[in-house]
């Protein structure tokens, strides 16, 4: 059983954070929250999303799992104006999701959850450095890096208490240096890792510019990016495996 | 088996040039493949799915290059990969030229998912089964966003392997293995790996096609030329070949050969709904056919597209009856009609009228072989290109159905009513065909003389068909085999430009037309003076042409020749030598009948050489040279 009403913008934000990595996913309709975990086909980037029942206008669920094509669901959600409410109801018999937006009703065929890639494990990595900054700052660094390269180096200078986003291209280089004062918070520690810009760009697309983003970083370790949306009742954690630093 | 291990052995096979040595290496690989045997066999042939499946990987070169670029980073893009491809010429070499693995996987950090059953720890590569599973998931990806999923999946695979494995993977993805391992090699290797011991019995030893010994102990030894000795007998190979023909699945046959031996292979049967390769023909002459078989089955060669029909009606007896006639029927209850092209693509949707036709005519399970031909309003055949407009159509099928009319001619029956007929003689199969689809069966005529064959050919050509097929009436149906049992009647080897020196009025309907023409070579009298040549140019006949001339054509030729009539006696006329025909033939024979001393076998009118004057016609001297060269 699943029946819920949610604001279009909350639904759109939630879907965006997953669709940047995969085109199909399982959605867990738990009693207390809606939850999605997914990993990209190359097993390099993953997302963990939860949206509390309180983030919905109304929410009734009993722990089922459905499989959806995200692009389709996003297309439908995109039909709503930002103030609209989206009504969602699962038809258990036909295994279809009925969606209603301001008089528009849509029936979405679901995908057998067993045919979707297994949900990823999320370990506690206990990463030594933690940087808290605005989504807009990450966006600035990534946009600049993308001009010169297809990979990006995230690094903490412990002595200078600074976080830097660096990109090295065939000819040109980019470096965005953010000192403690520029950041919301910084827990300095040994942290220096290289990442594929392809993946970070995709994750960055989903991160709201005004969100407070917690970046956990280590040396040659995956990065974790955490942020909240829907007034703190939605939570997203991205995790991205590093590239090997050639030097 | 680790994919890297498979790749290393594939590379060793690629480096081996000698056929026997290649077969021995492939056989050893198959013997070591254990649970991955079916996959290994398919991979060697550059396939993920068996040939009879219409599923394909569907990864294009562009996607493959993009995945390579992504795995090769940092700062390698598709254009860089394309540059290297232009340089090295082959995708495998390009893939091997990069160092993949720069991107680490989440699994190395205890994260991500367990799709990679081997743990996907950095440094441990995928197994053959992992690669197979991953490629199958790429094939299954469809719909919105699937291109990105395919790319990421392929990138993830490249990212986990080293250069030698990347070389093999890139080739596999594009289906171009370039190992020098063909289907025949795999067939021989299956026999060598799994059947050779069966042959090592005294009774079989004499029949061995190798060295008359055929013992397993010879394996790995070399003969005096340094080539390894193969121990599988011709019978072993034939058993594998037969199973391959009926199943059309190399991987499966390898596993059956290993697990159940020759008895298991012999148990394999055709399955309605699983297409087999079409039997093919080679070129041959009527004379060859009769010399070899004494009599030939002659049928029209249709200028269309080959179609294999698979159909098991859901109610095998009369409508309303619930009784099933044979157990084999139950197994294939209610399939099709399905139509497959020569390449085993499913063309059912494109040809609805053939589907309807078969469904309305057939009431037992069948596998039929035939040809679909486009026809005009009068039912006369149209060129092959017209069929093609219909054949691979996915959209607008109904509209095209209105535009291009099709006829289906069934000419062979591989299976009927639960009975496999591959090994039955052609005549028997054709009898069954006529029982099953009386009004769709193409006519098969048994002929034992060239005149009959010639008549049938003339009729076929007159009706606008491509020509005739000559088949051995006693031969089995051998899928995929371009053997000597089916012959496309050879197009004439060469043509001669001959002077028309005489003719005959036709008979009956054609009484007012010239029906046949006497054609002659030019005979120059060397040594005569220039003037004498002109005065006494002579022509000597080499045969008469009639075949392939339509009424329309005959009428216009009659108009052209009437003014040239020099003398007339009964229905026979002589012409002033003025017109040159291009004439095809099968052979030049010595003959006392004609003044030239030669006769053309199966002379055929090709066209009027309007551009040629009689002085340009071929000479007796050239004819003699051609005859000597035959």
TrEMBL record, chain A:
Keyword DNA-binding annotated: yes
Q: Which Gene3D superfamilies match?
A: 3.70.10.10
Q: Which GO terms describe its biological process?
A: leading strand elongation; regulation of DNA replication
The record's InterPro entries line, in alphabetical order, gives: DNA_clamp_sf, Pr_cel_nuc_antig, Pr_cel_nuc_antig_C, Pr_cel_nuc_antig_N
Ranges for the Proliferating cell nuclear antigen PCNA C-terminal domain?
A: 182-242
Which Pfam families does its entry note?
PCNA_C (PF02747), PCNA_N (PF00705)
Function recorded in the entry: Sliding clamp subunit. Responsible for tethering the catalytic subunit of DNA polymerase to DNA during high-speed replication.
UniProt keyword annotations, A-Z: DNA replication, DNA-binding
* Organism encoding this protein: Halopenitus persicus
In alphabetical order, the GO MF annotations are:
DNA binding; DNA polymerase processivity factor activity
Family of this protein: Belongs to the PCNA family.
Assembly and partners are described as: Homotrimer. The subunits circularize to form a toroid; DNA passes through its center. Replication factor C (RFC) is required to load the toroid on the DNA.
CDD domains per the record? PCNA
| Residue ranges of the TM segments | none
NCBIfam families named in the record: PRK01115.1-5
| Limits of the Proliferating cell nuclear antigen PCNA N-terminal domain | 5-98
Q: Which domain of life is it from?
A: Archaea
Write the protein's name: DNA polymerase sliding clamp
TrEMBL record, chain B:
Report if keyword Metal-binding is assigned: yes
Q: Which CDD domains match?
A: Adenylation_DNA_ligase_Arch_LigB, OBF_DNA_ligase_Arch_LigB
Question: What keyword terms does UniProt attach to this protein?
Answer: ATP-binding, Cell cycle, Cell division, DNA damage, DNA recombination, DNA repair, DNA replication, Ligase, Magnesium, Metal-binding, Nucleotide-binding
Q: Which EC class heads this enzyme's classification? A: ligase
Q: Which Pfam families match?
A: DNA_ligase_A_C, DNA_ligase_A_M, DNA_ligase_A_N
**Key word Ubl conjugation present:** no
**Its Enzyme Commission number?**
6.5.1.1
Annotated family = Belongs to the ATP-dependent DNA ligase family.
> HAMAP family per the record?
DNA_ligase
| NCBIfam families documented for this protein | dnl1, LigA_Halo
Spell out the protein name for this chain: DNA ligase
- According to its UniProt entry, this protein's organism is Halopenitus persicus
Q: Which gene encodes it?
A: lig
